[in-house]
Amino acid sequence: MPTPTAKISATVITGFLGAGKTTLIRSLLQNPGGRKLALIINEFGDVGVDGAVLKGCGEAACPEDRVIELANGCLCCTVADDFVPALQTLLKRADPPDHIIIETSGLALPKPLVRAFTWPAVRSRATVDGVVAVVAADAVAEGRFAPNAEALARQKAAMEAGDATVEHETPVQEVFEDQVLCADLILVSKIDLVDEVGLTAVADTVRALRPNAPPLVRVAHGDVDPDVLLGLSAAAEADLDARISHHDNEEEHDHDDFTSFVVDLPPQADPEALARRLAEVAQRFGILRLKGFVDVPSKPMRLLVQGVGARIQTSYDRLWAPDEARRSRLVVIGETGLDRTAIEATLAN
């Protein structure tokens, strides 16, 4: 346990939408290595799906009163208003945690959060033990972030030279690059979804972007030894200049390239049919992320829906509480211009 004068370590877990951050943290809560943890969870959307999944799943290591959920936004845009106050709340506790886990939204840039640890209100109490970037093997292998490794390397070189005219094929690629470039540890997740050729392509893509990247750790189902994830002692806030970002010269940052909304559905009697319909809708409209909870009338448990692109997964995560409204709500995330009206109409049919 930290002494009253010791700094509390914090780990920033970043990664694009659907990379597997919540699965990783859930695994960590179930095996914390004897640590008392606290969580700050951020989501891009009005429904706190990740927080609802994590709360209570590791009660001994992280009871619900040490979980702070910040929904509907990205912490990198609201550092002063949301992130620092949340961090201070945990630091001022009479029984402070041994380690703070910060799960960013899939669209957040990690560097502004690391910079917050240099603020006078924080720097004497906490340090960034490390920034962990979770990289989805299937997404990278399929070229969703960087279709051309050589072009990626050229863009990286131009960034280092301070070329403000560097253009990127998609906003998705830009967010992905900022997350990888800030990381002290890179976890390649969902390795069960690709073969060895795909994993080699992932490594090539990351190395093209960051030749000096730390070793890539392969992960399936979020299963990582906590001593690999925690205890990096990076003090990341001390070398901000070495962590390149596309937004280093911006006074303010926003996420105008992305949009999010919630779709309310009626109860669903056939989860498999729902999954097929969601996959079709995601494919048709270019949805990046779908997640939420669904009421299946014949089941006492709520159905958790997780979608990355057209890949939809469903599972029953817990019983509906006696006083809980059995609602079916899905968060939809995509690039700006997503046709909300058409998506809602299609899902309603």
SSE topology sketch:
Layout: E1 8-14, H1 21-30, E2 37-42, H2 49-54, E3 67-70, H3 79-91, E4 99-103, H4 110-116, H5 120-123, E5 126-136, H6 137-141, H7 149-160, H8 171-181, E6 185-189, H9 196-209, E7 216-218, H10 226-229, E8 258-265, H11 271-285, E9 289-294, E10 301-308, E11 311-319, E12 328-335, H12 340-348
Parallel strand pairs: 1-4, 1-5, 2-3, 2-4, 5-6, 6-7
Antiparallel strand pairs: 8-12, 9-10, 9-12, 10-11
Any overview of this molecule?
Helix 7 runs parallel beside helix 9 (196-209). Helix content is 32%, strand content 23%. Strands 3-2-4-1-5-6-7 form a seven-stranded parallel β-sheet, sandwiched between helices. The protein starts with 7 loop residues before the first strand and ends with a helix. By secondary structure, the protein is of the alpha/beta class. The protein contains twelve helices and twelve strands. Helix 9 (196-209) links the parallel strand 6 and strand 7 (216-218).
Shape: globular
Distance separating the two termini? 55 Å
Largest sheet: 7 strands, parallel
Q: Provide the structure class.
A: alpha/beta
Please trace the helix and strand order, writing H or E for each element.
Answer: EHEHEHEHHEHHHEHEHEHEEEEH
Q: What is Rg? A: 20 Å
Helix content: 25-40%
Mean pLDDT: 83
Counting H and I runs of at least 4 residues, what is the number of helices?
12
Catalogue the unreliable spans: none
> What oligomeric state do these chains adopt?
single chain
The number of strands is 12
Q: Can you list the strand order of the major beta sheet?
A: 3-2-4-1-5-6-7
User: How much beta, percentage-wise?
Assistant: 15-25%
